[in-house]
Write a structure and sequence with these properties.
By secondary structure, the chain is α+β, with helices and mostly antiparallel strands. The protein is 56% helix and 17% strand. It has five domains: 49 residues; 152 residues, Beta-Lactamase (2-Layer Sandwich), CATH 3.30.450; 111 residues, Beta-Lactamase; 140 residues, Alpha-Beta Plaits (2-Layer Sandwich); 85 residues, Arc Repressor Mutant, subunit A. It contains 20 helices and 16 strands.
């Protein structure tokens, strides 16, 4: 019998021995104790193996799945599952299952005190039942009982997951048939629950540490980026200040901006035309034209606006718009880079405002000079050298032009446009509420026409002209004043005649020029209309001028003209054909006929 005990023979074999009953009972009790010890050793080994498996895991989901899988194997049950405590809702929710087939069961939530699991969570101690639905100790609810019934569970054992008084959740083992749970099984599940709770808390701590470390790393990167941004902003501030102090221009600013941010930079004026372009590969052609239109249309205020991969900002001094700044093809554009663009816009506004102020000061010099010249009492000893210092030589033949724009256009913008069209060798300024210009030219009509055509590309401007005048002429100051008056009258006459956007001198206006001109050139007027006929008559001894006069006096009737001239009507017809060839078609139109009749009358006046 002792040999059988030592060899671990089953209790049934010991019970069959024919020995002293008392000795046999002792042997069976000793064998049972050995069986219990072996089971505990196996369970302890399984727990140690489980601890080793869990220690090697760091993914919370994998850890929880391993816990329920081990619980099912150790307890030998149909199903094992685990619920976790939800601090926000104050209940527990299903987190991991092994052996479960019910979708309803896998998403069930258990309020504290509800069902077996809720009672375990509330009491923080294990509970078990061989038949859940028949056990009145538990507060049965429709949702919990429905989920348990859908899974088909009957016997359930639950034990809390607790670490240092911190409730983590509940670990369950259950069967689909009635079965009692021994105290050893409950203790085994409790040991596994303790191990599981520690592992869950440790994994959570590791996960939290990882999140904290990641957040710390991200914060460090943000600080580093912020510090780098501050360094870039400081470098930008120093560079922009250097440009301003050294008297740099907008090209220096756009170039510096590309050095600071990379990519390209484009400065547009207030109308959207490119003023300065810098960078390796800025847009050009149609792409540049389309970009300029988008920038003008969509840029708002003095803050950076993103247009796809382009960042833009408006440039202004108080409420006066000065232009736009666009930056593109940059790798990144963080807040510090946006501040750099905004700082560049402010500095650009200062530079543009300085340019405008200097240009307005220079323009004021020109305005004062031309106003003094046409005033009628100019001091040439002072104004002559002043004009030459501005690139204008009064000793050359010059014409006086007066430009009139349509309604709504400011004199300042018109002065800028006329200045741009005429270039630096002219004097342009505002005189008595209109724009006047002294230009080097001997032909006032051509000068006026040329200026009107140049300005017509962007606006309709009517230009009157007079001259030429020279400083060497006697009465130069008076001539300048008279030329200014004549040019102004000519511009007004063009407007009155409906010739908006044209340019002309008084001589180009025909008989109207005799009215607006300060010194009517009657002989020149007669020659401009009758010259070809007078030359023909003088060369051939004919009298085409007399025929033309008789024709008009006869009411434009060739037959009555023939009677006046005492010639045949066919002769008058032949002479009229000759007149047409000399003065051109259309001379009998009302306007041309009036000009010719006035020239005939003035010819007699000059002759007398």
């Amino acid at each position: 019998m002792l040999e059988m005990l030592a060899s671990g023979s089953p209790a049934a074999e010991l019970a069959a021995l024919d020995v002293d009953p008392h000795a046999r009972d002792l042997a069976m009790r000793i064998s049972g104790a050995f069986d219990v010890q072996r089971r505990r050793e196996q369970q302890l080994a399984a727990l140690v193996d489980t601890a080793g498996e869990l220690a090697a895991m760091n993914d919370p989901s994998v850890v929880l799945d391993a816990i329920v899988r081990r619980a099912r194997a150790l307890m030998g049950t149909d199903v094992a599952y685990l619920t976790l405590y939800d601090h926000a809702n104050g209940d527990t929710y299903m987190r991991a299952t092994a052996g479960s087939v019910s979708a309803q069961f896998q998403v069930v939530r258990l309020a504290f005190g509800a069902g077996l699991g809720g009672l375990v969570a509330e009491a923080r101690k294990p509970y078990w039942t061989a038949d859940y639905f028949a056990d009145a100790r538990f507060r049965h609810t429709h949702s919990i009982d429905g989920a348990v019934g859908d899974e088909g569970l009957v016997a359930i054992c639950g034990t809390p997951l607790i670490v240092k008084d911190e409730f983590v959740g509940v670990l369950f083992a259950s069967n689909r048939t009635p079965r009692p749970f021994t105290h050893d099984e409950v203790a085994l599940l409790g040991s596994l629950a303790t191990l599981a709770a520690v592992t869950i808390v440790q994994v959570r701590a590791v996960e939290e540490s990882s999140r904290t470390l990641a957040a710390l790393s991200e914060a460090t990167e943000r600080v580093q980026r912020y510090a780098a941004g501050i360094e870039r902003a400081a470098a930008a501030h120093d560079r922009f200040a250097e440009i301003v102090l050294e008297g740099g221009g907008v090209d220096d600013l756009t170039e510096s901006l590309t050095h600071l941010l990379g990519g390209w930079a484009i400065l547009l004026d207030e109308s959207g035309s490119p003023r300065s372009i810098a960078g390796a590969t800025p847009p050009s052609g149609d792409a540049l034209h389309a970009l300029c239109a988008r920038v003008v249309e969509r840029t708002r205020g003095g803050h950076v606006t993103r247009l796809d991969d382009v960042w833009t900002i408006g440039i202004a001094a108080t409420a006066d718009p000065l232009g736009f700044l666009a930056v593109g093809d940059v790798s990144t554009m963080d807040e510090s880079d946006e501040r750099t663009v905004e700082r560049a816009a402010v500095v650009t506004a200062l530079v543009l405002l300085g340019e405008r102020n200097r240009a307005e000061a220079r323009q004021q010099q020109r305005t004062d000079l031309i106003a003094g010249l046409v005033s009628g009492h100019a001091d040439l000893s002072a104004l002559g050298p002043a004009a030459r210092s501005l690139g204008v030589d009064l000793r050359e033949p010059s014409c006086l032009l007066v430009a009139r724009a349509g309604d709504g256009q400011s004199l300042r913008s018109l002065v800028l446009a006329v200045n741009a069209a005429l270039g630096g060798r002219s004097l342009v300024g505002v005189v008595d509420g209109h724009v006047a210009a002294l230009v080097p030219s001997s032909d006032p009509g051509s000068a006026a026409t040329d200026l009107a055509q140049r300005l017509a590309r962007t606006q309709s401007v009517t230009v009157g002209a007079a001259g030429p005048v020279r400083e060497s002429e006697s009465g130069y100051v008076a001539n300048l004043s008279a030329a200014h008056t004549e040019a102004l009258r000519t511009a007004e006459a063009l407007v009155a005649l409906g010739r908006h956007g044209d340019g002309a001198s008084a001589a180009d206006l025909g008989f109207a020029g005799l009215i607006v001109g300060t010194r009517p050139e009657v002989t020149a007027y007669v020659g401009s209309f009758l010259g070809p006929l007078l030359d023909y008559d003088e060369a051939r001894g004919t009298d085409l001028v007399g025929t033309l006069e008789a024709y008009f006096l006869a009411g434009a009737s060739p037959r009555h003209a023939a009677t006046r001239l005492h010639v045949h009507a066919n002769t008058v017809a032949q002479r009229l054909e000759r007149i047409t060839r000399l003065v051109g078609d259309g001379w009998q139109s009302p306007e041309r006929a009036l000009e010719l009749q006035l020239a005939l009358r003035l010819r007699h006046l000059v002759a007398s």
